[in-house]
Amino acid sequence: MLYAIETEGITKKFDDITAVNNVSISVKPGELFGLLGPNGAGKTTLINMLSTMIEPTGGSARVWDFDVKKDASHVRQNIGMVFQDTTLDDRLTGRENLDLHGRLYDMDSKHRKKRIEEVLSLVELSDRANTIVKTYSGGMTRRLEIARGLMHHPHVLFLDEPTLGLDPQTRNHIWEYIKILNKEEGVTIVLTTHYMEEADHLCHRIAIIDHGEIVALDTPEALKNMLGGDVITLELENPDNIPRLCEIYKKDGCASIVSRKNNDVFITVRDGERQIPHVLELASDAGIPIRSVSLHKPTLDDVFLHFTGRAIRDKEAGETERVGYILRARRK
Amino acid sequence: MVRKAANTVYTMWLREMLRFWRSKSRIIGSLATPFFFLVFLGPGFSSSYRLPSGEPLDNSFLAPGLIGMAILFSSLMGGVSIIWDKEFGFLKEILIAPVSRFYVALGKAVGGVTTSIIQGILILIIAWLIGIKYNSLPGVVASIGVMFVLGIGFIGLGIALASKIESHEGFQMVMSFLTMPLVLLSGAFFPITHLPGWLKLLVYANPLTYGVEAIRWCLLGNSTIPIIYSLAGITLFAFFMMLLGGKLFDSMEI
Questions:
Q1: Mean pLDDT over the full length of chain B
Q2: Highest mean pLDDT range out of A52-56, A112-116, A226-230?
Q3: pLDDT score recorded for residue A315
Q4: Residue B34 CA from chain centroid, whole number
C-alpha cells in the first residue's frame, strides 16, 4: 500500500451547494496531514466523507486501501475519529466510555483492559478515569476523546478541529499528545484546523482548502518559500536616500524583490537572518544611515493571503465558534 | 457474524444499564406517580364507584393499568432518548463504529425494555405490599412477559419518532399529545365494558388497551378482551413498531 488515504476527484454536493469540489489528495502512511481553511471551506465535509459518515456524490476515495463507498465497514474498523463537538456519554465515567468503545470495535476483554490503561496514560487521564465525564474540563474531554479514538489501534486518525475552543495552554498540551501518538504509535493523522500556528507546528504537509477546493498543498516550509523568502524592512534616517539604496540592492543581486513605502525599504531575500549583516554593510559602505531594521519571516497567514486573496477569518471565527461550543456544552 | 451482532446488542444494552444505574433518583421519582395513584386514588375510587359486576372499583383494578402506564412512559422515553444521543453527539460515536445500525437499535430497545420491566416489577411489588392479591405466581411471571412485549412495541415507536424528530422541543409536544390520550383511552382507570360507541372505537384502536387487559388477565384473572386477542394485539404491535423503528433509524440522517 502506497498511500494511507487516496482520493480521486472526490466531490460532495448538498442540493445546490458544492461543499467539496473535485479534491484529489494522497496521504502517506505515518504522515501528519493538515487541512487548513476558514470555516465553511469544506474541511469537515471532506473528512466526514473519508470517515464514511457521509457519502460522496462524485469521485472516489480509498482509506487504508478500502473504498469508502463499497467497503465502509472495513474503513471504519481501521480509522479513529475525533469529532469537532464532543461525542462522549457524559453520564458515564471515562473508563466506561473507553470500554464501550472497545466493545463496539470487537476487542476482547483482556485486550480492552490493557489498552484502556495505555490510552489513559498517554493522555494523562489515568487518575480521573473513574469520574463521570460531566465533571471533566474542556481539555480533559478532548483528551479523553482522543484516547477513545485510539482505543482500537486505528491506522488512520481523523481529528476535526482538535483544539477548537481550548485555552492556549491546553492547546499546547493537545499538540504534544498529537505529536507523540503520531511518532510513537505511528498513526497516520489527518487534522482539520483554521489555526495557522496549529497547522504550522504539527503538520508534515498542509492542504489549503477554500470554497471546497485545494488551492495549495505542500510542507509548511515549502508553502512559505513560495512567497519568495523573508522580508527585511529598513527604515532610513533620510528618505532622499531611498532611490539610491534601492539601486544598490538591485545591482548587488542579493534581493529578489525591492520595494519602498514612505520611509521604508522592503527587500525580499532568502535566509533573512544571514542576509541582514550583508544588507547593512552595503548601506554603510554607501554612507546611508539606517534608523531601524526588522525581519519578517512569512507565516502561513501570508501564504493563505497569497493563495486566496484574503486573510483567514481566524480570530472572528474562533470567537463565534467558541460561543457555540460553550452554548452546546451548557445545554447538557 | 451472529457473535458480532450479539456483541453490538449487548454493548448497547450495557450502556443503557450503566446509565440506568446512574439515574437511581429518577427511577424513584418515576415510581411516585403510580404509588400515589394506588394509595390515594384507589381508596377514593373504591368508595365511590362499582364495577359492572357489582364489586367496588379499587386498587386491584388500578394496578395493571398503572403498570401499563409505567411501561408506556419508560419505553417511549427509552426509544426517544435517541434524540438526546443525537443532540449530545454520542450517536455519532455509535454510527461511526463498524457495527450494524439495526443491531444498535435492537440493543437500545432491549436495554430500554429492561429498565421498563424493572419499573413494572417495582410497581408490582409496591401494589403487593399495599395488599393487592395476585391470582397466581405463574400469572405474575406471565405478566412480566407481557410487559416485555408491550415495552418493545413502545420503544419501537419511540425510536421511529426519534428518527424523525429534529430536536427535543418537538419531542416535548409529541410526548404530551401522545402519552395522555394513550393512557386515558386504555382502560387503565375505568372498565371498558359499557363505553359509548365513539369512545369504544378509540379504546380498541389503542395498543396500550391490549397490554393493560393482558396484564390484568395475568395478575387478576379477569379481562374484558379475551387474553388471546390481547396477546395477538400487543405482539403484532411490537413486531411492526420494531420494524418501523429499525427502518427509520437505519435511514436517519445525522
A1: 88
A2: A112-116
A3: 41
A4: 14
Hey, which residues 91-130 in chain A have their CB within 8 Å of chain B? 91-92, 96, 100-101, 103-106
> Average pLDDT over chain A, rounded to whole?
87
Q: Which of A7, A102, A89, A107 lies closest to A48, judged by CA?
A: A7
Residues A172 and A288 in one domain: no
CA distances from A43 to A3, A19, A88, A323 (A): 20, 9, 22, 20
Which strands sit side by side in the sheet containing A257-261, from one edge to the other? A257-261, A264-269, A230-236, A290-296
**Which residues of chain A lie closer than 8 angstroms to B95, CB-CB?**
53
In a domain, A316, yes or no: no
Taking only residues 5 to 34 of chain B, the set having a beta carbon closer than 8 angstroms to any beta carbon of chain A reads 7-8, 10-11, 14-15, 18-19, 22-23
- CATH number for the domain harbouring residue A248: 3.30.70.980
CB contact under 8 A, A73 and B23: no
> B interface mutation test: which of A15, A89, A327 has the most B CBs within 10 A?
A89
Average pLDDT over residues A283-295: 89
**For the segment A192-223, what is each residue's pLDDT rounded down to a tens digit?**
998 888 998 999 999 999 889 999 999 988 88
Stretch (H or E) spanning A34 = strand A32-36
- The contacts of residue B81 (CB under 8 Å, 6+ apart) are B112, B158, B162
Q: Do residues A182 and A274 both lie within one domain?
A: no
Smallest Cα distance from A77 to chain B, Å: 6
* Nine cell digits for residue A240: 532622499
Angle at B61 between CA B56 and CA B65, to 5 degrees: 150
Picking from A195, A219, A243, the residue at the C-terminal end of a domain is A219
Facing residues of A14 across strands?
A: A17
Judge if A86 and A111 occupy the same domain.
Answer: yes
Q: What is the pLDDT of residues B139-168, one digit of tens each?
A: 999 999 999 999 999 999 999 998 888 776
A180 interfacial to chain B (CB closer than 8 Å): no
Give yes or no for A48 touching B (CB within 8 A): no
Domain span including residue A245: 228-297
In a domain, A103, yes or no: yes
Is B79:B158 a contact under the CB 8 Å cutoff? yes
Contact assessment for residue B81 and residue B162, using Cβ atoms and an 8 Å cutoff? yes
Whether residues A178 and A32 share a domain: the answer is yes
CATH of the domain at A150: 3.40.50.300
DSSP 8-state class, residue B40: I
The whole-number pLDDT of residue B232 equals 95
User: Is A293 a domain residue?
Assistant: yes
* CA pair distance B198, B210, nearest whole angstrom: 18
C-alpha grid cell, residue A198: 496549529
What is the pLDDT, as a whole number, of residue A158?
95
What ipTM did this prediction achieve? 0.85
